[in-house]
Structure formats: C-alpha cells, structure tokens
Specification:
By secondary structure, this protein is mainly alpha-helical. Helices cover 43% and strands 6% of the residues.
Length: 63
C-alpha cells in the first residue's frame, strides 16, 4: 500500500482509500498519507444531497 500511495503522489495524484471499516485502518491510512477515505468507519451510506450538506457544514471526517 505504501508504494501505491507514494507512486500516486509522485504523479501528483490524490489517493482515496475505500471501504475503511475500522479505526485501525483509518490510522494506518493516515500514516501512509492517504489524502481522503470513505467507508463505514466515517459514517453509513447516505444520499448525495445529505453528504453534500454535511461537507458544506464542514463535517468532513478525514482531515
């Protein structure tokens, strides 16, 4: 995983980790400098308008 993140960053790409299910996974991905993450650890699936409203309010879970 570390090599993939480093390669993406070397290519000036951002990295989104999908299916983050546990706090341990989230911490490891942060340590690897993943740019963003999504999955049940951050919250349940929701409609696009609800997530948009949460992001506008500054409720992003990965910072």
């Amino acid at each position: 995983m570390d090599a993939l993140v480093r390669l993406a960053h070397a290519l000036e790409l951002s990295v989104t980790a999908e299916a983050v299910e546990t706090g341990i996974q989230a911490e490891r991905l942060r340590a690897l400098r993943c740019d963003t993450g999504q999955g049940r650890w951050f919250g349940p699936p929701m409609p696009a308008d609800e997530i948009t409203a949460r992001l506008r309010r500054g409720e992003a879970a990965w910072a």
